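Two proteins, back to back. First:
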Amino acid sequence: MEIEKVYRVSNMDDALTLLENYKEEAELLAGGTDLLVSVREGKNRGNIIIDISSIEEMKKIEIKEKEIVLGSLVTFSDIVQNDYIKEHIEGLWKAGKLMGSPQIRNMATIGGNIGNGSAAADVVPPLLGLGAVLRVKGSGGERHIELCDFYGSDGKTALKADEMIISVAFSHIRNRKEHISFEKLGVRNALAISKISCAIYLEVEDKLINNIRIASGALGSYPIREYVVEDFMKGKVLNHDFIEMAAMKYSETLEKRLLGRKSWPYKKEASKGVFKKALYSL
């Protein structure tokens, strides 16, 4: 679709006014790592571009008393270079580090990675593991959406045409009983293999699993919480034998979702390996 107009804004109010006026005709330009490719290929959804890359208030990483807030224009490089995230939220930091090349990390934004709805979005599994909540604004005002409720099986998100993601927030990991991990099987240039990623939030006391959140990437039509596996693991003692049992349960759950796809025979074994690696890294 040919682009008719490009607006560059420097504040949220102007961006929201344009979104209200154009709705489905408009697309937001943040880092542009996905949108500009779509435009070159003629696959862009709208013919109006709203460039929000200059909105400074959406570029902040805020370490608050009760939560951490990432503005939607925070880049992957911002995450990698943040000492607090590196030290305390290793799974999120690792997802940022493993995402693309340094050039892409310098441009790609958190909000864009979430909002595009890609099944392989790198930042989404660890954010799901952290129980993240999105702050969204539109003509109808502000609302908060739990990230686990943001994606739909039809490939659409919960974002309305006149809304944009302002920030994403999650609670601190404050004690030594809590951990968040991330593991990813990337695409080698020589092979056409889809990525697999897995993030696990784990709270353990005396080897007993008090709480767990598991999120998969590229193992469904969108990044997804693995509630069945979580319920299977809660309250159990974490040891080598149980990790093998949990990996089998993880594979069985994926089989119900992916059976019949050409990639399933490969992903059946590879996903178990990624899952176990994420669990052992904790």
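And the second protein:
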Amino acid sequence: MYVLTENFPLYWQGFLGTVELTVYASLLALVLGFVMASFRVAPIGSLRVLGTVWVTVLRNTPLTLLFFAVVLGLPRFGLVLPFELFAVLALGCYTSAFICEALRAGINTVPKGQGEAARSLGLSFTQTLGDVVLPQAFRSVIPPIGSTLIALAKNSAIAGAFSVTELLGTYKTLNELGYNIVWTFVWIAVGYLIITLSISALFNVLEKRYGVAR
């Protein structure tokens, strides 16, 4: 217990760093995931190809490699940003591929007749998708999106290896100070547990309120 009490400011700073990474990367992933899911079901071939390439490349690229590409590669093209922002970009883009597939799966559960009826009423593709299809698809994709964002929170630990302040990175300082490594990791695990259980609780509420009736 004294490991936590004697180093609470350090733990708290790392905890807040992980929360910030999770929140910002989740928002980016949700936006990009929605855009790419729209592309994948769009009637325009070039957009479908773009969405497919985005998902295929990111889902089959190790996240650590993506971090290297973003943090070390983008500055070579003159794009110099804080490491925290690079981490958000890497996490958000990577997770967006999984959000996209969850949304696309939800869209496929909506009967085709719904979209056909909307188009027969003169609605555009964008109106059909936003006003008819997605509201119905959303009900079935709440659990997989929640699981994906929980995975994002845990994946944020990789950012510590790129000079980003986050929870797992606190073990380096505490290890150098001579604290018991086992208890150090116990309290780190508790911090991640708080974050993941909070996300799980939020999506449980959303599922009970908006999800598909069982």
